[in-house]
Write a structure and sequence with these properties.
Blueprint (H helix, E strand, L loop, with lengths): L8 H12 L3 H14 L4 E7 L5 E6 L6 H6 L27 H7 L2 E7 L6 E7 L2 E8 L4 E7 L6 H4 L5 H18 L4 E6 L2 E6 L5 H9 L1 H5 L1 E9 L2 E8 L11 E5 L2 E3 L2 H10 L12 E6 L5 E2 L10 E2 L2 H18 L86 E6 L3 E6 L2 E6 H19 L4 E11 L2 H9 L1 H6 L3 E4 L4 E8 L7 H15 L6 H13 L11 H9 L14 E5 H7 L9
Parallel strand pairs: 1-7, 11-13
Antiparallel strand pairs: 1-2, 2-6, 3-4, 3-6, 4-5, 7-8, 9-10, 10-13, 11-12, 14-15, 16-17, 17-18, 18-22, 19-21, 20-21
Helix pairs in contact: 1-4, 2-6, 9-10, 11-15, 11-16, 12-14, 14-15
């Protein structure tokens, strides 16, 4: 008896602060949320020494009277919830009523607040959770909250703070997040008295992105949406193909005005950009999702950083579809368009005039067929394929497109092939400089898109095995394979469930050849599992085509077929990246070469 006791209020507040106040950035987040809920149109943040010495936030929101100001420092005191049912439809940034008492319990706390129209404001001083003074004060309408000497009374917590630069970076990350979530609110941030963020109230998200990160960042992005699916509305920006980072620090996801981190959305985003980013890179994004409040639970994490969804599959699909459609429409023009211009230094090169390929026009037809018609061929291909039929069984080389005889051995207009070098590289001279082409990456892109069209049309050729092979898979891989048997058949697999966790392989896609069929199946299963359940339709086809292409037998392309290879590559939907996202071509402009050789700007070529 007598072993269980009620915690004292000051100790209970410090325990709660352990969840709410992890670091100075947590204070910025909680106070900024309160400012937004108060209807602020301008928020100013000051912090010093990484926030450990000072975090102060001033807003011009509704403010509080003395009674509400004192009550706000009590645990679980809030104006945003009334009944338990309100928790299922949270539409405010804060709602628990823990932020202010938690912050006040681990800092030297000062709050000055005044309602609009009130004669005087209220100033409250708190030290380590104990109220020291309450008095009237002159103040502009709104609220100022200061937290000094964070964790001064909890040295065990203070020693776990990181260095000043790290903590400052965390604060700026939070500032960027809520500034993006509310572009119509002006945001300023000063570090040690020096302004580091100034983002005036903006009418649109693109202006806010430019103000925060600069026009260079916005130039690397492409607009997504607005798109709507299943009551979920999405819009924002995602990085162009080839643009990415090794971390997710520049992935901003906003759900119903709340900046959050979401593994489901990050996975959908990465899969949607899988074919346009090198391995290991994460796409950049600023995505704003709006959905009914009862579809999202923002009470799943103590600091409200992560959320749970009532229909996670719908969220993944909405993000995947919108981003994939946007990235798929982009044709990055890393190099000058292959247009009908007179090639420099190549007077003996025959050039047949043709319409220039328009930049950033995904609907444009291939240059040889400006009307969008498919060249005549005896094979049958899916509508809109723009290529001839499937490769013969066992062949790793996609068939050449039908091209006029006078172009069968010519490079694209305006380009001159200089020759091969190294292990599988071609050098070309173009209107803007020297272009290096990776033969393997180019052939992977050609084969990938050919196989993708065949899968979509159900015409992918299959190579039968001399002897069927039985493969035992881990439980999760087996589940993914069985769930996608129909799609695997369209991709050229002949497989069936053999009982237990075994799969019998009778045939594999011709592109991959007959060697290593078990390894190919493992590769496909791993790709399906990594992509998760978000896949359907074209997204599933891409995963299958990418997995088969990775395991394909890529033979060296003959040097005398270089022009044909380049022509095939430039007819692809995304010619400048392999299925894995690696570049197929790299250009060194003449201006760059002139700088390297010190020719300066006056040299006339």
């Amino acid at each position: 008896m007598g072993n269980i006791r009620i915690l004292p209020d000051d100790l209970a507040n410090q325990v709660a602060a352990g969840e709410v106040v992890e670091r100075p950035a947590s204070i910025v987040k909680e106070l900024a949320e309160n400012s937004l809920d108060a209807g602020a149109t301008r928020i100013v943040i000051d912090f010093a020494k990484g926030g450990s010495r000072l975090v102060a936030i001033r807003d011009d929101g509704c403010g509080m009277d003395k009674q509400d100001a004192l009550l706000s420092l009590e645990r679980h005191a809030t104006s945003k919830l009334r009944t338990a049912s309100d928790l299922a439809r949270v539409s405010t940034m804060g709602f628990r009523g823990e932020a202010l008492p938690s912050i006040a319990s681990v800092s030297r706390f000062r709050m000055v607040t005044r309602e609009h129209g009130a004669q005087a404001g209220t100033e409250i001083l708190v030290s380590g959770g104990r109220i020291e003074d309450v008095r009237d004060a002159g103040a502009p309408p709104g609220t100022l909250v200061e937290a000094r000497d964070l964790f001064f009374n909890v040295p065990a917590r203070r020693k776990f703070l990181r260095g000043e630069e790290t903590e400052a970076a965390q604060i700026l990350q939070v500032v960027h997040g809520f500034a993006l979530s509310a572009p119509k609110v002006g945001v300023e941030c000063r570090r040690d008295g020096r302004e580091v963020v100034r983002a005036p109230a903006a009418a649109s998200l693109d202006v806010r992105v430019r103000d925060l990160f600069g026009p260079g960042f916005l130039a690397r992005m492409v607009a997504v949406g607005p798109a709507e699916s299943g009551g979920i509305r999405l819009e924002g920006y995602v990085s162009k193909p080839g643009e990415g980072r090794r971390d997710r620090i520049q992935q901003f996801v906003i759900i119903n005005g709340r900046p959050v981190t979401s593994p489901e959305i990050s996975a959908s985003l990465r899969e949607a950009c899988a074919g346009s980013l090198p391995p290991g890179l994460q796409p950049l994004c600023v995505l704003a999702l709006v959905m009914p409040p009862d579809l999202v639970d923002c009470n799943a994490h103590p600091a409200k950083r992560q959320v749970r969804f009532a229909r996670p599959e719908d969220i993944r699909r909405a993000v995947f579809d919108a981003v994939h459609a946007t990235v798929g429409e982009r044709r990055p023009r890393t190099f000058a368009p292959f247009a009908a211009t007179e090639p420099p230094h190549t007077p003996d090169l025959p050039v047949r005039p043709e319409p220039a390929r328009p930049v950033e026009t995904p609907e444009a037809a291939p240059a040889d067929h400006p009307t969008g018609e498919t060249p005549p061929t005896g094979d049958t291909v899916p509508p809109g394929a723009g290529r001839t039929g499937a490769p013969p069984p066992g062949s790793a080389v996609p068939p050449e497109r039908a091209v006029p005889p006078d172009r069968a051995a010519e490079p694209p207009p305006g380009y001159r092939i200089l020759g091969s070098f190294g292990k599988g590289y071609f050098a070309m001279e173009g209107p803007e400089g020297l272009v290096i082409l990776d033969v393997r990456a180019a052939r992977e892109r050609i084969a990938f898109e050919e196989l993708l069209r065949q899968i979509a049309g159900g015409t992918a050729p299959c190579q039968r095995l001399l002897l069927p092979e039985v493969v035992e898979l881990p439980a999760r891989e087996h589940a993914w394979i069985v769930e996608n048997l129909d799609s695997l058949k369209c991709a050229g697999f002949l497989i069936e469930n053999f009982g237990g966790l075994s799969i019998k392989i009778d045939g594999v896609p011709a592109l991959a050849g007959t060697g290593g069929s078990a390894g190919l199946l493992h590769e496909v299963a791993a790709s399906l599992r990594a992509a998760g359940r978000l896949l359907h339709g074209h997204g599933l086809h891409e995963v299958l085509a990418r997995a088969v292409t990775r395991c394909s037998r890529m033979l060296d392309f003959p040097e005398d077929g270089a022009a044909r290879l380049v022509d095939e590559l430039l007819r692809c939907d995304l010619p400048y990246a392999s299925p894995a996202g690696n570049p197929t071509m790299i250009q060194f402009s003449f201006a760059e070469l002139d700088r390297k050789f010190g020719r300066g700007g006056t040299f006339q070529r």
